[in-house]
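Obj.: predict assembly geometry.
Materials: sequence records (below).
Method: joint structure prediction, all chains together.
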Amino acid sequence: MSEQRVAPADAGAVDGRLLRGARSRRAIARHAVDVASVEGLTALSIGRLAGDLGISKSGVQALFGSKENLQLAAVEAARETFLAEVLRPARAAAPGVARLRALVERWIAYVESPLYPGGCFRVANLSEFDSRPGPVRDALARDTRDWQATLAAELRRAAAAGETAADLDAELVAFQIDAVLCAANTALRLGDDQVVDKVRRVLDALLSAPAAGAAR
Amino acid sequence: MSEQRVAPADAGAVDGRLLRGARSRRAIARHAVDVASVEGLTALSIGRLAGDLGISKSGVQALFGSKENLQLAAVEAARETFLAEVLRPARAAAPGVARLRALVERWIAYVESPLYPGGCFRVANLSEFDSRPGPVRDALARDTRDWQATLAAELRRAAAAGETAADLDAELVAFQIDAVLCAANTALRLGDDQVVDKVRRVLDALLSAPAAGAAR
DNA sequence: GAACTAACTGTACGATCGGACGTATTGTTT
DNA sequence: AAACAATACGTCCGATCGTACAGTTAGTTC
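Observations (raw C-alpha cells):
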C-alpha cells in the first residue's frame, strides 16, 4: 500500500505522481462517504463508484487494492469531515457547557443538512458492522470511542468549573448524549422533525438536573 | 400473494397445502431474521437462505414472490419474536414503574442472549433502511413507533399512579429510553459489557429524578 | 376420476460483483 | 537516455445475485 506517502523530508519537491494519486484517492473516498451514508459500506461497489466519477473500475481498484481498503478510506474521510464540520467549529466556544452545547448544535446541523442525505456516516454504518469483526468495525468503533470521550472530557470540564453538578458521571452522561443523538439521526431520516427539540430538551435536563446521570 | 390464507370459516377443515406453505414460510422467515440480524436485510439472499435450510432456491422464490416480500416477512417474524420475548413476559409485572423495569430487563436479556448474535433485529436494520423509502422502511418505522408508544403508555401510568413526577414528559422519556437501549445494543456488539449497568443507572435517574425529562 | 390449485424443483438468463491480469501513460531517479 | 515507479485503462474470470419459466408432486373440489 502506498498510503499518503506525500510530503517527504525535503518539502517542496513532492512526487507529482503520488500527489495526483492522493488527490484521486481523496475524491473517490469523499464520494464513497456520500454513497455509503445512504446505502451502507457493504453496498458500496467499486464499479458504481467508478461510474459516478467517470473513471475506470480498474483505476479505483488499483488505487485502493481491495474493497476493504476502500471502506477504510471512506471511514477515514468521514472522520475528517466530522472533524471539520463538528469538532473544529465547536472549539470556538468556551470550554465546558458552552462548548458542549456547541458540539451538539453542530452535530444537529451536520446531520440535518440536506448535504448529507444519509445522515451521520458513523451511525449509518456502525450498526451494519457491529456484528462483523474486522478492521472496518474497529475503525468505526474507534470513532465512537473518541466521540464519547470528547463529550465526557467537556462534561468533566463543566463539572470542574461548577457549571453542572460536581458529582456528575461524565462517561454516563456522554453515553446518554451520544445515544440520543444517534436516535435523533435515525428519527430525522424517518421524517420526524420534532426530534431536534427533543434533543435540546434532553440536553437541558442532563446539564441542569443535579441528580440525573449522577452515580448515587 | 396468498398470505396466511389458513384458518377458514369452518375451522378444523384447513387446506393442508396452505398449512404446509404457511409452515415453510414461517421456517424461512425465522431463519431470515437470524441472518438479517447479523448481516442485514439487504445482504439477505434467497439462494443462501435456501442452502441453509436445504431447500431449493426456486421454492423460496415461489413462496415469497420477491425479495422484498421476504424482507417484509422477516420483519413480521422479528416483530412476533419481540412480542413473545419482551412485551408479553413483561405484562406479568404490575403496570407502571414495575412493568417499565420489566420491559427494559426483558429487552436487555433479549439483546444480550447468545441466541441472537446480531442483537436487536429492528436496530440492526432500521439504520440500514432509514434512508431508503419503501414498505420495509415503513414496517420497521412502525415497529419503532409502537415500541416507543408502549414505553410512553407505561410511563403515563406510572405518573398517574404517583410513582414518578406528575409532570413527566412521557414521550420524551420514552424516546430517551429507546435511544439508550439502541446504543446499548450496539455497545454490546462491540464487546462492552458495562453498558448494561449504564442502562440501569440511566433508567433509575430518569424514573427517580423529578426534573429530568420534564417539560419545563 | 377429472379439473384445479398450491407447494416445490431444475434450469437458465442477464446483471453485477470483487479481483486478476497485461499494458499504456506519465513522472522520477540515476 | 535508460531504468524505474505510480497512476490509469481494458479485458476477462468465477461467483453470486434476483427473477422467469416449464415441469412435477401433493392435496382439494367438483
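Conclusions so far: DSSP finds nine helices and no strands in chain B.
To do: check interface contacts against the pulldown list.
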